[in-house]
Amino acid sequence: MIGSGFQRARSAEAKQQREEAILEAARALGAERGIREITLTDIAAAVGMHKSALLRYFETREQIFLKITTEGWRQWSAELCSRLGALPSAAPEAVGQVFAATLAARPLFCDLLAQAPLNLERNVSIESVRAFKIVTLDEVDRIVAELRRLLGIEETQAVDVIATATSLAGALWQMATPGPHIQNLYRSDPRLAHAVVDVEPRLDRVLGSLLRGLTDR
After folding, report:
1. Separation of alpha carbons 77 and 86, rounded Å
2. Predicted local confidence at residue 77, as pLDDT
3. Residue 197's pLDDT is what?
4. CA separation (Å) from 31 to 88, 99, 109?
5. How far apart are CA 160 and CA 126, in angstroms?
6. How many C-beta neighbours within 10 Å does residue 168 have?
7. Count of C-beta atoms within a 10 Å radius of residue 69
8. Which residues constitute the domain of residue 79?
9. Which helix (H) or strand (E) holds 148?
10. What is the phi/psi pair of residue 89, to 5°?
11. Which of 39, 40, 109, 123 is buried deepest, with most CB atoms within 10 A?
12. For 166-183, how does the pLDDT look when each residue is reduced to its tens digit (9 = 90+)?
């Protein structure tokens, strides 16, 4: 945490360091409590700043988390493509397992995937949205190329697979983390057992079936 004597950055390097401190605080808070629960005031307090000072670096809380989502796309895409490239075979189920494993290993990214279209893209400048979309499209293109090489599916089919994987990962993560009181309710009543979601196995099953269906056509 930056102390109460926080000073405004005077150089480009100092500004970059402050921005990274803000992003790191937002990542930690988001991972601990969930994106929906984090306010701009929370982030400012975590880095020892007043909210008005933080606004010199980012437009809104949504811009902060949208930038973190952008980073998440780059990191996930890099690991996904690396692991797909190392597969000993191109079995559709194996590809689905890699998608499921790499997404489930990134709970913060899954949370962000759900929040981005709901609110993160809605309270930022057009340029912020444009920058986010361009990075996302670039990473989607990388993954599409790997899917087409491995499975021989069409470009539109590969895009559909990625959209299904990311949107479902975001939705399943929300279902899997309803809060401690609701989780206790689900586990205490056998009739509600179906509401207890384990993200990776379900994502694995759905994506494996989808990919098998596409390659069997």
Report:
1. 14
2. 98
3. 83
4. 34, 21, 9
5. 26
6. 21
7. 22
8. 60-215
9. helix 126-151
10. -145, 170
11. 109
12. 999 999 999 888 877 887
